[in-house]
Write a structure and sequence with these properties.
By secondary structure, the protein is an alpha+beta fold. The protein contains 17 helices and twelve strands.
Length: about 450
């Protein structure tokens, strides 16, 4: 899944189930002007005008530096169910993003262009974090460039914490404390859900997986090269029991139990939800789409149990190129990806330029992500843009101070979206049926998804 920044942004991706792809892919590598024309994904539909202006300003900078390339930008948000249709219909931009979870399946299906030779020309081609670039590789071939990796955290509304008499500088560190604070908030601040999770569009399964990982469980295990679906495990049951108790015992989950990524962000931005699991980069989308004031936003690491396997789910996006793009367009596309996504991580001038454009448009600068290369490079980039950072870094310190010492765990890699979709119904059942049979529901998920996994052989 993606926490759009991104969203992921992806995640935003979000990731799954919302938004439409827009526009048309270039029909050829050149126009009447003799230049190479490419279309590139810009922002999620619904982003504010300032965010689009910031993006357009970066496009102008790129075209000035590359006068032989013309960029046409298009609003874009990943959605699994329509991707193949958009690709087949020629309505996919030349440059677009897909979530980590889907990149392998898409490249194996021939739906991402092979850009190995283009990437090899980049001076940092051999400097990627191998665990990150692996999501876009098959053997020695490269089918995209990862960007914006994130770890799941716990986002919370600092203003609501204060209103409820809680200290926003001391967010909960255990699941018991999350439940306790959620109950206090819902009792003292009428109309606010102290805690909630996403439930639909595959995001319910994504967040249930997040909660399972935090307790040391896994949705899939691999033994001897064979994948076994293991959603029915003690940690997932515990995560669902926690959600059940927040809802049915504490009455602290509100009344809207059909929330996807956009929906829960909107509810959080509207002050209807005080805490929810999210990608560490979600503040960008909250500002662009939901008018959240960074001063009222906080994020901390997810509570982890004492299990040695407990960890934070990680995800991100892959900047990819349409397989229908010409060779000239592929070369231009990788130049754009390098300029827009990578140079701000590696070059001080570009990092500062990007940060200045964002800050001038009142877009958040300093939102926490994870390193595409290594932590030293990440820290250096953050030092370059320090004068432009416009979010209170102390508000995200509960996350950034701990995340680099946290066990980071990749998402399940077999039929991920189908697994997440099946788990959506389990989460919804627990929130809407006080006596939902958790064991039976998870047993069915294991059986249904295992059949899909076995059919791949």
């Amino acid at each position: 899944m993606r926490s759009p920044r991104s969203v992921a942004a992806i995640a935003a991706l979000t990731i799954a189930g919302v938004g439409l792809l827009a526009g048309c892919s270039s029909s050829g590598s050149g126009g009447d002007d003799g230049k190479t024309h490419i279309t590139v994904a810009s922002l999620i539909p619904g982003s504010d005008k300032a965010a689009f202006k910031a993006f357009d300003d970066r496009v102008k900078e790129f075209e000035k530096a590359n006068p032989d390339i013309v960029i046409k930008s298009e609003e874009y948000q990943w959605t699994g169910p329509t991707f193949s249709t958009q690709l087949a219909g020629g309505t996919l931009p030349d440059v677009f993003n897909v979530p980590f979870t889907d990149s392998q399946a898409l490249l194996q299906a021939g739906q991402l262009a092979d850009i190995t030779s283009e990437v090899a020309k980049l001076p940092y081609a051999d400097k990627f974090n191998e665990k990150v670039i692996a999501v876009a590789k098959s053997g020695d071939k490269i089918y995209g460039i990862p960007y914006g990796p994130y770890a799941m955290g716990l986002s919370y509304n600092r203003a609501i914490f204060t209103q409820a008499g809680l200290d926003p500088d001391k967010p909960p560190t255990t699941w018991d404390e999350v439940r306790q604070d959620a109950k206090i908030i819902s009792e003292k601040v009428p109309g606010v859900a102290g805690y909630m999770q996403m439930t639909q569009g595959n995001t319910g399964g994504w967040e249930l997986t997040t909660a399972t990982y935090a307790r040391g469980g896994r949705m899939e295990t691999v033994d001897g090269g064979k994948t076994k679906v293991t959603a029915n495990n003690p940690q997932t049951k515990d995560a669902l029991q926690f959600l059940h108790d927040v809802r049915w015992v504490d009455n602290a989950a509100g009344s809207n139990f059909l929330l996807d990524w956009s929906g829960i962000n909107q509810a959080f931005g509207g002050g209807q939800i005080a805490m929810y699991p999210s990608g560490s980069d979600v503040l960008t989308a909250l500002v662009q789409q939901n008018n959240v004031d960074p001063k009222n936003y906080g994020i901390t690491t997810l509570p982890l149990t004492d299990s040695k396997d407990a960890g934070a789910l990680v995800g991100g996006n892959v900047a990819a190129v349409s397989p229908k793009s010409s060779d000239a367009q592929k070369a231009a596309a990788v130049k754009w990806i390098d300029f827009y996504y990578m140079q701000k991580l590696l070059d001080e001038k570009q990092a500062v330029a990007d940060a200045k454009v964002l800050a001038a448009s009142n877009q958040p600068v300093g939102v926490p992500t994870l390193p595409v290369f290594d932590k030293a490079t990440y820290d250096q980039q953050m030092s370059w843009i320090a004068p432009e950072v416009n979010i209170p870094l102390e508000n995200v310190a509960p996350f950034t101070d701990k995340i680099f010492d946290t066990n980071l765990v990749a998402e399940p890699n077999k039929h991920t979206q189908e697994l997440y979709g099946a788990l959506d119904s389990v989460v919804q059942a627990v929130l809407t049926d006080k006596n939902a049979d958790i064991d039976a529901l998870l047993t069915k998920v294991d059986s249904d998804i295992q059949k899909l996994v076995d059919a791949d052989k």
